[in-house]
Amino acid sequence: MNDVVPVARAMKWLVGDRLALVLHIGDGPLAYELADQGHDVTIVGDDVTAIRHPHIAYVRSQGDYLPFRSRSFDAVVAPDLNDEVAALAEYARVLVDDGLLSTMARRYDDSIPWMRKLRTITGDRAGTIAPVNTFTASGLFHPPESQEFNAWQELDFPTLMRFAESTKHPTVPAAALSAVHELWREYGEQTGSLRLRHETQCLRARVDKSQLAAEPEPPDTVLIDFH
């Protein structure tokens, strides 16, 4: 059993029924899942330091101002919708009419023995979606909708390593992941896989552009090039 169907359903719910132009705020694993499903993804943020996916555009930007023309994206995916009004206004500006602002958080079943041991290695980066007080009060979006998706996933060793890296707490050094090899030998080597249960919480809202002021055009976007 794998999580292909639930993940596909969650991605479709976050960005809409069709392939979309998606702006992902910050460099994170959700952007790569969206790109792998065929969406046209741009990552923007001050954490953009390298090109990690051949089919994603990367833009380095600081502050709330987004260096994109108005109505450039069908969906904006942000790590936290409880942002300042200035940031929310920028999300609203770059969305097309009726575009979606979305976020997603995953929680993993720590009652599974191998998962408890992994958390002692990687720390705990999982969480829940924060209350959206600023988001709902901004007047820039229609009332939000929420959805949950639950699934079991089978991890082989390479997938386990990618999972450990993507969920590692920022304070845990990368060298600590060497201990995952021993975890695999103890729990997964005989069967060739480990089973993981996760709960995905999704939140989205459609933009309401009626409250936006006049939208001046920003300067042309500059894609970063690390070559």
Give a written overview of the molecule.
The longest helix has 12 residues, at 4-15. The protein has a seven-stranded mixed sheet. The chain has helices at 4-15, 29-36, 85-94, 113-122, 133-137, 157-167, 180-187; strands spanning 21-25, 40-45, 56-60, 73-77, 95-108, 145-155, 194-206. The protein has seven helices and seven strands. The chain has one domain (4-207): Rossmann fold (3-Layer(aba) Sandwich). The chain is an alpha/beta fold and 227 residues long.
Helical amount among residues, as a percent range? 25-40%
Number of E-type strands: 7
Between the first and last Cα atoms, what is the distance in angstroms?
Answer: 40 Å
**Could you say what the CATH topology is called?**
Rossmann fold
What's the SSE pattern? HEHEEEHEHHEHHE
Using brief descriptors, characterize the structure shown.
7-stranded mixed β-sheet; Rossmann fold; alpha/beta; disordered N terminus; elongated
Please outline the helices and strands.
Layout: H1 4-15, E1 21-25, H2 29-36, E2 40-45, E3 56-60, E4 73-77, H3 85-94, E5 95-108, H4 113-122, H5 133-137, E6 145-155, H6 157-167, H7 180-187, E7 194-206
Parallel strand pairs: 1-2, 1-4, 2-3, 4-5
Antiparallel strand pairs: 5-7, 6-7
Domain Methyltransferase type: 26-101
InterPro entries: Methyltransf_11 (IPR013216), SAM-dependent_MTases_sf (IPR029063)
GO biological process, one term: methylation
